[in-house]
Here is the input.
Amino acid sequence: MSAPPSAEAIPVLDHGFVRLDGSLADDLSVVNAARVSFARRKEAMDDSDAGLVRFLMRERHGTPFEHNAFRFHVRCPIFVAREWFRHRIGSYNEFSMRYAEAKDDFYVPAPEDVRTQVGKPGAYTFERVPDELAAETRAALEQSYRSAFATYQGLVDKGIAREIARAVLPVGIYTEFFWTVNARALMNFLSLRNAETAQREIRMFAAAVEELFSTQMPITHAAFLQNGRSGP
Amino acid sequence: MSAPPSAEAIPVLDHGFVRLDGSLADDLSVVNAARVSFARRKEAMDDSDAGLVRFLMRERHGTPFEHNAFRFHVRCPIFVAREWFRHRIGSYNEFSMRYAEAKDDFYVPAPEDVRTQVGKPGAYTFERVPDELAAETRAALEQSYRSAFATYQGLVDKGIAREIARAVLPVGIYTEFFWTVNARALMNFLSLRNAETAQREIRMFAAAVEELFSTQMPITHAAFLQNGRSGP
Amino acid sequence: MSAPPSAEAIPVLDHGFVRLDGSLADDLSVVNAARVSFARRKEAMDDSDAGLVRFLMRERHGTPFEHNAFRFHVRCPIFVAREWFRHRIGSYNEFSMRYAEAKDDFYVPAPEDVRTQVGKPGAYTFERVPDELAAETRAALEQSYRSAFATYQGLVDKGIAREIARAVLPVGIYTEFFWTVNARALMNFLSLRNAETAQREIRMFAAAVEELFSTQMPITHAAFLQNGRSGP
Amino acid sequence: MSAPPSAEAIPVLDHGFVRLDGSLADDLSVVNAARVSFARRKEAMDDSDAGLVRFLMRERHGTPFEHNAFRFHVRCPIFVAREWFRHRIGSYNEFSMRYAEAKDDFYVPAPEDVRTQVGKPGAYTFERVPDELAAETRAALEQSYRSAFATYQGLVDKGIAREIARAVLPVGIYTEFFWTVNARALMNFLSLRNAETAQREIRMFAAAVEELFSTQMPITHAAFLQNGRSGP
Here is the structure.
């Protein structure tokens, strides 16, 4: 795990990124998949097709949005990856700490991202903490990370299997994975993770995913927005 | 529904085809998805990578084969489509006879494909019938199709809803659909459908699918063959 | 294929039924699955739990509704089964006409169900046709079914493989299958198939499914209704 | 999170368990799902049915094994849960450290489970370490866990949101979840996780799962063993 592997990667948080590794994606495939119902097919989009895309989204005709694929390369903290992997419609391959050696990249929130939780269960909001407490928190996280990594390193150096030594590594450590997903499942992910109710950290990754998605399928993305950020 | 929509479509049976409408597929993505476990990535395949692909296939590490997509456009009889759609890992959009008008294309087996079933349950084999019986069978099918279609047409002409009139249409009528699938699910399909035990008709479609697959991911396809036509 | 296999089967259309073959289903499992987030568990529901179920439904927290299973035994026309099987989250085993012999049960709509289609594409409605046309339609369907079945029977009697002879059998013939599904996928099915926009025939099957579902998980079903027949 | 919630829970590792919370599972449903192909159904198993179950397993007819459900309640370390959740065919609800407070239960391997990794990549084996190194390792893990938890507790006490403070918690901490799965996906899980190549810790959980599975579907489980621990 090192620097983002190419210029197009979008940096996220202190050591993370989202990169589009490849895609088969265009708005035309949505239209053609829907039109196969009537045995019609087009070689190019025209203006009326945007209306069809909006109609399909609104009426929750989901399958026409599945005939495409996005392959993302992501680097994020484990606690973000754990939320991400709950989305089962999609494919994952992740860095393994059973065999490979962990690297000491850990998530420390920017000062303005250190927050407190206010309100009641089911209706929490989050607020920035005073600068001093933010600094103190960052120092405490860094110290704890450093100490855990030293323990890990020490055990590995003594010959303890990595799959055991890793037990002390915190969920704030960075991991890396490939994620391949279609636009329908992607919009479901965005509606839940690039949202007020999502944890701020995964939300920032989801925003990067959304940026790449909107570039590839602008008409579908516009329909998603018009539908209140609700997928088909 | 008309002639295959482009030169690359592979004709199958009397009125069917398989066409690759688009793909995100290469052998390199298999290797890179597997290597993310070790945080390594390559820009091109080399000779050792073919060995890795074979290893993954043999050891049933399936996920690296999921980071790709094939979008097929298929035209086949309904009884073939029904077997096809039992494969749930993949996306489908099909021609709808609820609203669109059926077209009179029906499957009549070539004389050498008219067969009889011999043996016992669980161990049937199929043999070609004598020419005369083949001719008789073809005539009987054609006559039955023509009659059913005339009934359908007559009811539609009298104003009966298509969704009701279609009830008389036989499962030998042609339908059309888009199918998007990844290589792992595709190999599962091929192992079951381009196989001795599959019905001859779907097998011919599966063979066309396999031809297109092998062109896109030749190293993965070779590993599939070496693994006894068993996917990961 | 014969009479419904037990008293509890709900008859649908002229020869169909829906029967609950078994289930693991209660509202308590929804509550306990949601409460595992807070490491709390209950042995019985209380009044406040209905509110939690409604909250989960409205906020689209879907996974707590997946920890249950319904195993249905269904008999319906093939054209209904084809729409049903498009729902991929669930398990199916169906009667096979490749090897088993077809039985001559076909769907003939009741006189009041023979309908015409009015309106424009995307906004069709259906209206009952005059009695005379209904009677004529029913006779035409019956005649076409009888003729197709005679062709099928004749070919089988001459030794033609069933998997070929069946090509003439119409999509109005009855088939039979087992369907196992969880409440989340079931509600998605109900929202699309026990709905105005669904074809009347599958809607009647979906209504029978809903009746059995509401008996097993009454609080979840009530929340589904209150949520505008939209699942989580 | 506390003691296993009932007598039937199987304890695993130092603070974990597997408990069968409910099931819809019997061998007869496999037979009946397969026999629907021929429209036959039984009220009870007989001797010949075990042969059918073995045949289905061997020939990889998987769908008859899907008409059942097991709902497990599991408590295990996060690094075990992460491997578990890679199995996408199934339903999960997990304890959330975003809002609920973490409890200080951490995995410390028994002395005989502290191991070293020998051999080459792709062919590692694991061996027990000398008693002294085992004791030293256990002490290092405990010390690191205690320190991380103190940091977590300190941050929470100062008002830092739990969703941030948890970043220091190690993957050796215990979590809890519900898992609902059918026998086909369960056998896939067992073939990969109750296996030589799996990490010892998840293997012990998988063994507990297998014990509960074999009690519910003994004939299916016997066929799984006879098939070389390979599912359908």
User: Anything to note?
Assistant: Residues 131-157 of chain A form the longest helix (27 residues). The domain at 10-97+172-226 of chain A is CATH 3.30.1360.170 (Gyrase A; domain 2). Chain A has a mean pLDDT of 94. Chain A touches chain D through 50 residues (CB under 8 Å).
